[in-house]
Amino acid sequence: MSGRINVTVKNVQIENFTYGILVWESSNCTILGNNLIGNDIGIALSVSSNNTYTIGNTIIANHFAGVWLYKSIKNTISRNNLTNDDHGIGISVSSNNSISENYIASNNYGIWLQNRSSDNHIYHNNFIDNVLQACISSLDMTGCPNIWDDGYPSGGNYWSSYNGTDVYGGSYQNVIGSDGIGDIPYIIDKNNTDRYPSMAPFNSFDVGVWDDVAYKVDIVSNSTISDFHFDVDMKSVIFNVNGTDGTIGFCRVTIPKSLLRADDGWTITVGDQTIQNCTELEDENFTYLYFTYNHSTQTVTIEGTWVIPEFPSTMILSLFTLTTLIATILLKKKRKGKPQLP
After folding, report:
1. Where are the domains of the chain?
2. How many Å apart are CA 118 and CA 144, to the nearest integer?
């Protein structure tokens, strides 16, 4: 597409072309839920801005790059599966892009930045078993900073090549107690550092839409997570964990405060055991809960004390208006049916 605004490309499969999808001099385009396999470049974004890639683009075995950005700014690349490409994500002469929650695995280069690309925000991605997890062109990137984490306590990326420990917590990682974040930064090169590398992969789960706001819960865990669901009536996040018997599992669960809160304290159970030692962190919008348990197949329940209303406020207002209207009609009919006194 060229020179377009507000175009959506959704649920298509494109194989063995030069470009799977080419966005040229366009803005506000959405590329959603597509399969891009065996092309030279899966998605190419050139001289474009404010494009959003979300939820479920599968981008596999593309010969040069899964996603390539060139002279493009303020785009969101999120929740894509980028595997077995030469470059998972390539960024050239591009800035102020947000790259998050992508699964980037088994590529020659997980992510590549070159040609004075700067101020890109790269966080909450899973970089797994890429030959080079991240590559920064050394000739033309001096003085071009990029941001490799989302601050504390939100955290950075998961790097399968990271070999640090998690004994400490806090924004300086100097407070006794684990928090699911590595104690030492992940060094990409002397000018690029993930200050808060995750100790396990990120998992993101959609929980619903209220008042046109989509909510999700993120879980960092060394367990296999399954059967996730959000129970409004129980004011609870519920999911299963599984791991090798005899080992210690951990979860770091991020819950939006506008979705679920525990003003009187959280109740966390794993199997039939109530967690007594939970590390609770928070920022303006989220609560972060870190806890450990003995591995086996178990159900985790995180119960709060306040939950988002089951019905959005607009729906409640509509139901109230409809109920009032029906009551008024019935009352009029009742009055109309009464005999008139002489």
Report:
1. 8-147, 148-199, 202-307
2. 5
Alpha helices in the chain (DSSP H): 313-337
223-237 pLDDT per residue, tens: 999 999 999 999 999
Residues 6+ away with beta carbon under 8 Å from 282? 153, 257, 288
Q: Per the omega criterion (within 30 degrees of 0), is the bond before 145 cis?
A: no
Strand pairing class (121-123; 158-159): unpaired
188 Ramachandran zone, left/alpha/beta (phi>0; psi -120 to 50)? alpha
- Contact, 200 vs 179, CB < 8 A? no
Under 8 Å between Cβ of 75 and 54: no
Q: Taking the model in full, what pTM does it have?
A: 0.88
CATH number of the domain located at residue range(s) 8-147 in this protein? 2.160.20.10
Instruction: For 181-194, write each residue's pLDDT tens digit.
Output: 999 999 998 889 99
